[in-house]
Amino acid sequence: MEALRGRKYQIIAMAAIVAVVAAGVVGTLTDSGGTDLPERYHQHEKAQQLADLPEADRVAASGTNIDAATFASHLPVVSIDTGEQEIPGERVISTEDAAVEAEAADATVAEDEHAGPVTLAADGSTTIPTSFSLFSNDGAANRLSDAAVLSTQAELRIRGHSSRLFDKKSYLVHFTEQDRLTARNLDVLDMGADNEWVLNGPFLDKTMIRNYLSMNIAGEIMPYTPDVRFCELFIDGKYQGVYLLMESVKHDDDRVALTDSDPKSAATSYIVSRDWEDATNATNVYDFLNVIRITRGAPLEVTYPSQRIITEEQFAWIEQDINAFEKALYSYDYDTSSYGYWNFIDVGTFVDYAVINEFTGNIDAGSYSTYFYKDVRGKLSAGPVWDFNNAFNNYMDSDLSDMGFFVNTKPVFYMLYKDEAFVHRVIARYRELREDSLSDERMLTMIDETIDYLGPAIERNYTVWGYSFDARAVHDDEKLFPEERNPGSFDEAVGQLKSYIVERGAWMDRNIENLRQLSHESVNKKYNH
């Protein structure tokens, strides 16, 4: 068992798949029964506004002052005191760089499973102990001189993959007791009590609202979508800018609320994640199939039950459960009543996952930061969604403004789109959501209202990070290519976002019916049974 706990938990997918196979018979899709979603809390609509403050506070919070002693904001404020320690998790890109980075930070370097070589704390730990304080008043500006509404010991590290190279870092925060080991669950801004939180620092996304916009729209559609709240962040008294405080994806009553794992039972609820860069660099189904032929496996990482509590029997059961679904999906009889894939998955969640990521142009979906969950009493579900920093044509490496459909090229979805019934549901669901959650009016109004809510915090953020609007002033790993894609101002960035939404929606409206070609018998005839 110790050997099992010492290795990375990965699901090994089907042992061998030589070719993608399909059939044209339309199956009957059934879901495990949807979950009634609670009303989504939209901070920009329900939280304290700048205009709600008393006049003196409103004046104080309206400027660009970022001095800790006199700072004021209508947004919640987070202050983290590290005692001037170097925060571990800085990504290094070569052995020479790693040595220089480690020496400068009085730290060592280790291999992170998601990001490659990263710095460690001086004592070799992956986190440092800090003091975390949250300031959030009702009816008054938030100041660091106020009494904090929440104060706790917290472990801190830099998080992310490519974003670790950005000047503006993102952080993972774990609330603990003073022993640094015992988790401490605390409710943060009415998002529910937990001990693990993400401070997302938008840098490549010059609008700062892609994740906020997408998570809130997705949260109206899909269960367990992480809650998010804007805040302004100070570390060791230095202003860091506007951040998005986010729930992480994990099992808990206020997160992904699954039936608790029972160590006495092999059958268990579980959450798995896919990040191809960690495992095989397979970014689409073609790479995926090639990898299976070569390595006989496509890894998924088990994130719940955790390595600390999972048993060998549970790991084997999860592996078998995933294999059973993929065997059904990639077999000749995947759309028959006895062996149909819908016997294994909550189809509705896969439909919604496809629609929300297709509309937003979230090219990483299905390949990176992709989650699936299953309650021991239910079926496998797609989600929760995570990370829209690259969405809406904000992908660093190339311009995707004229991108066609892409979700159908992703592992699992490639086969789902060969079934007429699944494609029909995707089209119907898209048209339904375009009348409401994904309508141009709804999306553009939400953008304007969110920007109005942030107000002077936007200017304060760019008091620190405004240089990044000059593409010549940032490194190649901090900007879009080709360089003319980089906005020269906040207003230009917002204009780009709005234009993409309108154009993407119009294109999908015109072309959504073309998805039926993917499931047509003429395309899949040679695989039909």
From TrEMBL:
Keyword tags: Membrane, Transmembrane, Transmembrane helix
Transmembrane segments: 12-30
Highest rank taxon of the organism: Bacteria
Pfam families reported for this sequence: CotH
Protein name: Spore coat protein CotH
Lineage: Bacteria, Bacillati, Actinomycetota, Coriobacteriia, Eggerthellales
